[in-house]
Design a protein that fits this description.
Oligomer: heterodimer
Largest interface: A-B, 63 and 71 residues
Strand content of chain B: under 5%
Radius of gyration of chain B: 24 Å
Strand content of chain A: under 5%
Structural class of chain B: mainly alpha
Largest sheet of chain B: none
Number of strands of chain A: 2
Number of strands of chain B: 0
Number of helices of chain B: 5
Order of helices and strands of chain A: HHHHHHHHEEHHHHHHHHHHHHH
Order of helices and strands of chain B: HHHHH
Number of helices of chain A: 21
Chain lengths: ~500, ~150
């Protein structure tokens, strides 16, 4: 019973006092920043990344992951109480959550979202426990060509699913690929694109890029493009926290459906919790016998998306840990964190470092449980945290960014690099270019190049080696399909119009 | 008639950038297909970027992607305040220490959200400098001087 042994091993790791502590810290911080609109899991994880260098890698990942799925729990609170999503993925929860609060049912909404999040997360963890080792064993058969094909597929999917036009998404992926190539090329020793800056010899620092592109940009998004006033928190009668039997009964199927959708979407590279929650909501509406209630405070419209986004967040760990391919920009940062600690994610991780993998998985159980227990009683505390004015918060965040980036190499050049990326992020915001594909391209770029190189080396310069094996051919074929599909629609229209005109 | 100006500028920027990357990549040596050189991957990426940039340019002339066209007004001074604060930290901290640098950051960046209240700025300076010193310099041993004159 291999699974049983692994569970025991993982539990031993997860229940080590320091890991429990940092799991708690992670999920607590995650919930708080998930609550606060304008600060996301991505910026927080990047902010805390430098701190984790002093920690044991397993502990570090447990904490960072805790922030990630903790934020999904907290984000729904702001959506319900303020009608402002705490994180982008919780935007859908506003649609029915806020009306529920206005109907005096805020307590029920908050409680049910916690339960839905727990259900979604837990079921996805089971999926992770079963699938990741299977994929890892299967993935040993993957060679350089297969990895190349899968990564290219992942990047193209990511670019087409991101906000903004697909063209812009693709362009951002390529920019990320180029940025990933800055620095010394290990195979030839050639310094690339560093324009005489010695500090760039090791490449662009991931933390500086993320802080600038996402952290600074997020602050600018709030201050330069949006407004900083927060509307009043609706008065919440927290005594009415308990849902009645009707609510529970109506929520069971939405939660299960939401979890299924979330888990599937989460595993796809590039697709994340936002899409999962949107799809879950749309599904519920279509499946419901009374679709008109959606938007007025339907409990299904709250529980399904919440299960979906938590499930997708946990499921995103499947490709990241078993294949080393991040399914989400935050996963890309976590991947970067692992690499910085000297751990290469991939099939090797699951099979050769079981303490890390299973310790992490068991810590997910612990984390989700802690979150369920935390969220219910501490809602009052969280509501008062929501009252911190943003005008004080963002300055603190800027400070943390500066000092956080500085802790990397004690080199001021990195701060200027961060500022540069902040400017780039600002320009991208104005131009409508999505940043997440850039990050994915940046993290995957070096790996794609390496795999391409290896594949061609093994194939002795024969390009057909890339489509040689069934796996790589399939993925490259799917990639081509995704790239060409949107062009077929207008083409077909033009052809039929031409025929009619004759 | 340029219908979407931002897309046009974006397209130009991407095309030019892609072209520069491609040209530079040729200097690095493309190698053969069997042993690809350091320049091959950036060459390919730069070429793709140039093509995408041109496509974007063309689409902007035809009306753009239409995503987010009615945009809220951009508060440029808020952006200037944020970047100014960051640059101030970067310039002041190495020369004068963490406390003066953070003070400069707070003073300059606080203007991004409207006229700041002196009490809040002072509070921020105290909390951030204090917390920063305790956490990063003392606890984590960051080689950063607190104050040097």
């Amino acid at each position: 019973m291999d699974l049983f042994n692994n569970i025991v091993l993982g539990s031993q790791v997860a229940l080590a006092p320091s890991n429990i502590l940092f799991c708690f810290v992670g999920v607590f911080v995650g919930t708080v920043i998930g609550l606060l609109p304008g600060i996301g899991a991505l910026s927080t994880i990047s902010l805390l990344l430098p701190l984790t260098f002093y920690m044991d890698p397993t502990t570090a990942i447990i904490m960072l992951a805790g922030i990630f799925y903790g934020a999904q729990y907290g984000g729904s609170t702001a959506s319900i109480l303020l009608n402002i999503p705490g994180t982008a993925t919780n935007a859908i929860t506003c649609l029915d959550g806020y009306p529920m609060a206005k109907n005096g049912r805020a307590g029920v909404a908050l409680a049910m979202t916690s339960v839905a999040s727990f259900v979604g997360g837990s079921l996805a963890i089971v999926l992770l426990m079963v699938l990741a080792p299977l994929i890892a064993q299967f993935a040993y058969r993957f060679g350089a060509a297969e990895y190349f094909a899968i990564m290219v597929f992942g990047l193209v999917v990511a670019s087409s699913l991101s906000s903004g036009s697909r063209l812009k998404g693709l362009a951002m992926v390529v920019v990320g690929l180029i940025l990933g190539g800055v620095g010394m090329d290990i195979y030839s020793g050639q310094l690339r694109y560093q324009f005489g800056f010695v500090q760039l010899a090791e490449g662009v620092s991931l933390v500086a890029l993320v802080m600038g592109l996402f952290g600074v940009a997020e602050i600018l998004n709030n201050l330069v493009l949006g407004n900083t006033d927060h509307p009043r928190v609706t008065t919440v009668s927290l005594k009415a926290l308990l849902p009645d039997r009707d609510d529970l009964r109506r929520s069971v199927l939405p939660m299960l459906r939401g979890t299924g959708i979330g888990a599937f979407i989460g595993m796809l590279p590039g697709a994340g919790p936002t899409i999962a929650s949107f799809l879950a909501y749309a599904t519920e509406k279509r499946v419901s016998r009374t679709p008109e209630i959606f938007g007025t405070g339907a409990i299904e419209g709250v529980t399904a998306p919440e299960s979906a986004n938590n499930a997708s967040v946990q499921a995103a760990f499947v490709p990241t840990l078993s294949l080393g391919i991040p399914g989400d920009p935050i996963m890309a940062v976590l991947l970067g964190a692992l690499i910085i600690h000297g751990i290469t994610p991939g099939p090797g991780l699951v099979l050769e470092r079981p303490q890390l993998f299973w310790g992490l998985v068991m810590s997910f159980w612990l984390g989700n449980l802690l979150l369920l227990l935390l969220n219910l009683p501490l809602i009052g505390v969280f509501v008062s945290i929501l009252k911190i004015p943003y005008r004080a918060l963002y300055v603190g965040m800027l400070f943390l960014m500066c000092i956080g980036v500085y802790t990397l190499r004690a080199n001021i050049f990195d701060i200027y690099l961060m500022i540069g990326f902040g400017l780039l992020g600002f320009a991208m915001m104005i131009g409508g270019f999505p940043a997440a594909p850039l990050l994915l391209g940046f993290v995957l770029g070096p790996m794609i190049e390496e795999n391409l190189r290896r594949a061609l080396l093994i194939g002795r310069g024969d390009l057909t080696v890339l489509v040689g094996s069934p796996i790589s051919a399939t993925f490259l074929g799917l990639t081509a399909l995704i790239l060409l599909l949107p062009a077929i629609g207008p083409l077909r229209r033009r052809l039929s119009v031409g025929r009619l005109a004759e | 008639m340029t219908v979407s100006r931002t897309d046009f500028i974006g397209g130009v920027a991407l095309s030019v950038g892609g072209l520069l990357v491609t040209l530079q990549a040729m200097d690095y040596g493309l190698g053969t297909l069997r042993t690809i050189g350091p320049g091959l991957f950036p060459f390919a990426a730069g070429t793709v970027l140039t093509i995408l940039g041109l496509l974007l340019l063309l689409s902007s002339l035809r009306g753009g992607s239409g995503v987010g066209e009615p945009r809220p007004p951009i508060r440029w001074w808020a952006a200037a305040s944020v970047f100014g604060g960051l640059v101030a930290w970067a310039i002041v901290t190495p020369r004068f220490g963490l406390v003066p640098g953070t003070t400069a950051l707070v003073l300059i960046a606080s203007f991004a959200a409207g006229r700041p209240r002196p009490a809040m700025m002072l509070g921020l300076i105290v909390v951030l400098c204090g917390g920063g010193v305790l956490l990063f310099v003392e606890a984590l041993g960051l080689p950063l001087s607190i104050l040097k004159l």
